[in-house]
Amino acid sequence: MRGSTLTPPDPLAPLDLAFWNIESPEHPMHLGALGVFEAASPTAGALAADLLAARAPAVPGLRMRIRDVWQPPPALRAPLSFGGATREPDPRFDPLDHVRLHAPTTDFHARAGRLMEQPLDRDRPPWEAHVLPGADGGSFAVLFKFHHALADGLRALTLAAGILDPMDLPAPRPRPAQPARGLLPDVRTLPGRLRDALSDVGRALDIGAAAALSTLDVRSCAALTAEPSGTRRIAGVAVDLDDVHHVRKTTGGTVNDVLIAVVAGGLRRWLDERGDGSEGVAPRALIPVAKRRGRTAHPQGNRLSGYLLRLPVGDPDPLSRLGTVRGAMDRNKDAGPGRGAGAVALLADHVPALGHRLGGPLVSGAARLWFDVLVTSVPLPSLGLRLGGHPLNEVYPLAPLARGHSLAVAVSTYRGQVHYGLVADAKAVPDLDRLARALAEEVETLLTACRP
């Protein structure tokens, strides 16, 4: 730990700074993952908590706190805009502040939902690991929470993997040496930089115009938007990846197209059963696309774009719904993730740090004007993960819930299964378990429709 104090502060990237400043007690901006492990004994959960606490200090990213700063310290490697924030080692770091063992439970999702309501401590490294022993002694779960300013989905996976059992992974390919960066830019690159800057301005205007148009002619879906209650409920469902591949091979497109179409069909079934009605409903789904910064980029951190599409919830034909989703995704991919209404998050790069700090509350309330539901995919390794030798059998990714939204959907594939993780406002969506079942039923509906 002693050497970590020498690590210089690192300025937050613009989007990280935005996530840090739009948070409120009712709308915490942390993402999560609920992993369910097979237990060899009733004490497996306690052992897991001890291992997580013992391993956490060795993972540098888990010891980083976020500190608001008004003036950049001289030790920074790059300039920091006035009013920003830095990511820096916490000299008071204690893993016992972050790893907690809970009483046994019979319902991992219900317990995790209550824990997802609670904001992370902003004065400490913004992450937590909650170990939930199963009441039957045959399983335990771990809920990981990471603030979105600390890590996106892929980075959070890397941090969590650092405190799970070591995996035998292939050695990374060596990266070519990067030329040293001088204090002043090479004048020969200035014309190109000017063209890039002008292109960035044009792209920003294009994104802004597309986002404004996307708010027009919208039939709102009351079930997906709600006044904030500060409560959370989560649910999860696992479906067979082979079934998804069968649908894809029969109809064409990609696995992701099928997974998004399942969400559309599940929402239709759920809305009809709860009496809200699905006729004419086409909620706008935001599909995030990671545009990661290179290791040499400064500042490093999140850089997200996205695709915006209308989910064909009102269409009664499951194969037609899938075709609509596939066509919309193809058009989005042809246009690229750097343009269009879905790329609004890229505009964070054009806002000064002080603007993020002062405008955070206003921006947080604008999400419901931009999209109705988040549908995000989180990559997971195909190798089996373990903790204390206990295999990880299920893992449900959990996305942050934006202000004014009732539902966020995250999906991942792991060891032959697709896991849908649902996060909802508990008061607006008390029947979230029914929606989870509707997703599984939609997969069966697609399989039936694909049979000759």
TrEMBL record:
<keyword id="KW-0808">Transferase</keyword>
<feature type="domain" description="O-acyltransferase WSD1-like N-terminal">
    <location>
        <begin position="12"/>
        <end position="258"/>
    </location>
</feature>
<dbReference type="InterPro" id="IPR004255">
    <property type="entry name" value="O-acyltransferase_WSD1_N"/>
</dbReference>
<protein>
    <recommendedName>
        <fullName>Diacylglycerol O-acyltransferase</fullName>
        <ecNumber>2.3.1.20</ecNumber>
    </recommendedName>
</protein>
<dbReference type="Pfam" id="PF06974">
    <property type="entry name" value="WS_DGAT_C"/>
</dbReference>
<keyword id="KW-0444">Lipid biosynthesis</keyword>
<dbReference type="InterPro" id="IPR009721">
    <property type="entry name" value="O-acyltransferase_WSD1_C"/>
</dbReference>
<comment type="similarity">
    <text>Belongs to the long-chain O-acyltransferase family.</text>
</comment>
<feature type="domain" description="O-acyltransferase WSD1 C-terminal">
    <location>
        <begin position="301"/>
        <end position="445"/>
    </location>
</feature>
<keyword id="KW-0319">Glycerol metabolism</keyword>
<dbReference type="Pfam" id="PF03007">
    <property type="entry name" value="WS_DGAT_cat"/>
</dbReference>
<comment type="pathway">
    <text>Lipid metabolism.</text>
</comment>
<dbReference type="InterPro" id="IPR045034">
    <property type="entry name" value="O-acyltransferase_WSD1-like"/>
</dbReference>
<dbReference type="InterPro" id="IPR014292">
    <property type="entry name" value="Acyl_transf_WS/DGAT"/>
</dbReference>
<keyword id="KW-0012">Acyltransferase</keyword>
<keyword id="KW-0443">Lipid metabolism</keyword>
<comment type="pathway">
    <text>Glycerolipid metabolism; triacylglycerol biosynthesis.</text>
</comment>
